[in-house]
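User: two proteins, same treatment. go.

Assistant:
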Amino acid sequence: MTKNILYLGSQSKARQKLLDLAKISYQIIEHSSDECGIDTTGSFNEYVLAIARHKMKSITLPSPETTQSKTIFVLTADTLMRTEKTKQILGKPTDKNHAKQMLALLCLERAELVTGCCLDQKNYIDTKWVTSKTNHWTTPATLSFCVATDMVDRYFEEMPHAMNACGAGIIEDFGLNFLKDAHGSFTAIFGLPLFELRTALHAIGFFEQTS
């Protein structure tokens, strides 16, 4: 039985770190999704999953000459946060002032967080990759995260990559100082729900070991 590689359509360092911790072999591939034109009329969960699906449609698949087999497994994901009461979606900050505004809002309201994942099995047939199996899902969580005003500058000094995180919130390393509580999938908050992912990989025929 051949060990499979998960092709990850994401540049997220947090997702890569989670896959490293989970001992899941992966290789990063590019996608050209800019998230424009995605339908925003559905539910929050549907919107997040639509972004992950758009990434799946715009990935650059590997050449079959570079893969171990003519069957590959591809994963795309997206994570979004919104305030629990006022339902304001908190994406990545545009600048530091925007980041500070979102952090201040998070001190006032709990946040809902959803990670959407698209996992496809693709087979190389007649000179092209064809999707044979799919498993697309969302995983929710809620959290309270509050960076006190007198700690905001220190927070950005310690966590500069917060500028690339939804809501400018990072709950690892120094950011753990400001996590009041979290409910639901803890790894979904980091951007990749590992329990659900491993279950989906098993169901779709992904083999992690050679026997």
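Protein 2:
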Amino acid sequence: MQKLTNMTRVLIPTGALGLGYDRAALALGVANRPDIIAVDGGSTDSGPSYLGRGVSKYSRGSIKAEWRELMQARAEAGVPLVIGTAGTCGADAAVDWLYQITEELAAELGQRLRITRLYSGQNAAFLTEELAAGRVSPLPAAPPISAEILAACTNIVALAGAEQIQAALATGADIVIAGRTTDTAIIAALPLSRGDHPGAAWHGAKVGECGAIATTNPATGTIQIDFDAQGFTFTPLGSAARATPYTVSAHMLYENSDPFILHEPGGHLDVTAARYQALNQREVRVEGSKWVPGRYTVKLEGARVAGYQAVALALLRERRYVENARAWADAVVAQTRARVAARLRLTDGYELEIRLIGIDAALGALENRHTVPVEVGALAIVTAPTEALAGEIAKIANPFLLHHALDEDEPMPTIAFPFSPAEMHRGALYEFCLNHVLHTADPMAPFRLVVTEVGNG
């Protein structure tokens, strides 16, 4: 595929490191001479626990295997490799985790590398000062925050934009390992710094953030985007994948409530006037997107411990119990609460619920399908201020989960427990507690860059 001199070519191997990708498509992308390889490392999709603990959702073995291939692809292409939101959550500990893996691989592959780490972690004391000064603002539906809530966060990150990625690239980095970033920043940064069309840079980055999701075959993973002074061209590289004006335009609604506006640090993207043209059976050309500058803000995300959980799973198979599973579950909850009050002198300060897997575990009262299954999983969930109390209440629920009868005058049933012990500790339960933006005159002020030379190639 011919590459023009006045364009910036970004190779995106997959929607997130750890998801896998088409190796042949990656090889084709490298052969097409990209200017940069950019890959996302995570998001908030998997909930607050990963940010709260500062750990990766994906296994170390999977990450190392895929990162090895991308490091080899980078060496072959001779261009920078950038990952954003490293280690799923982008916490400082997750950046260091991926850096350690990179050090190992550099030694194994015989590569000499300049690695730049971009840290997004925020200090609670600093944010408390910024909050008091009026430089922290809530986004819609944001929870109230205070100095106490900020101090309770186990991890707080700011979402880096294009400016921070550009600063990292300016260090001459072979590899940039970035903490929490917007999904688009790692793709838009280089085209913007080269003077490509700013609206196209952000729009193409939005379309390409999740790899081949904006194609007819998302599982292929690898795509290529060419940016220039007028627009961008989106090209899937998997042999079975095609892009159409529909698949490309529809991605503005992916994880975004507005089909035309996307907010980023320093402004917003407006695609109201964008025009989508199918160049052939595979590629789509887009022009007309607009970047609207605004006040510079970075989004804040924080997670804190909200309690501790223990769970127990019981399986109902006797047909009358399956048909009356909700009544049975409500009775078990009531009986357990009564015994907790009698034995522990505790009437509130904890939560107990039973989700019926196979009936309404996902939607609860909103469920509108009422076919009776063969069996039902009754998942009892206890949330309490301490791990010990959560376990104690789960144990109090145990005899009711095992033997509670629908009617007092019928024989005592025995419900199946698939695990022993029946109660299982989930540990700390985390919650997101920030949905705010930090106003900053200096885009780099909330972030840190660390440059290191590794390997001995």
